[in-house]
Amino acid sequence: MMSKRKPVPNHREKRCTLDDERCTKRLRRTWKTKLANNLEKGVEDKKKPKFSPNIEEKRMALLLVLACVLCGVSYGELVGEKSEIANVNMNKEVQDLGQFAVEERNQSMKEIAFAKPELTFVEVLEAQKQVVSVTKYYLKISTNKSGGSKTYDSVVVVKPSSKQLLNFTASPP
């Protein structure tokens, strides 16, 4: 009687079982060589398709960016750019910020030195606005100080929940 021999696995056939160590090693070797050959040819795994925009998609993206830049420039609303505030005398928010700046300056002077005379707010003469992560206001403020008037430059930062005076200096003559 002849003994039943296990058929020798052929790597081209799918009859290999997980138990057959020689077959799995052979299949792994062939899979690795196929993968290496594909990578050398520039063929990637089908699960990760490579995105390569064509010329039309590149042109459309460039036109979109250009349109956004031109629209922003025409309205002066670029982030980080200072813009003049029109009708400062009639703008209640700007006048309130000027009043706040003078009050904060007076408060800090009281804490530092008792002898400094207090300033009296008159009006904001000029104002610029800069939008970054917060809104900065650059103000030129007219004040009265013991009978004479003087102008000051100040920077006020406005956050959604608070206001802060960054700078308050005398304007150059």
From TrEMBL:
InterPro entries: Cystatin_dom, Cystatin_sf
Example GO molecular function: cysteine-type endopeptidase inhibitor activity
Keywords on record: Protease inhibitor, Thiol protease inhibitor
All copies of domain Cystatin, residue ranges: 77-171
SUPFAM superfamilies to which the protein is assigned, alphabetical: Cystatin/monellin
Keyword DNA-binding: no
UniProt cross-references to Pfam families, sorted A to Z: SQAPI
UniProt name for this protein: Cystatin domain-containing protein
Organism: Phaseolus vulgaris
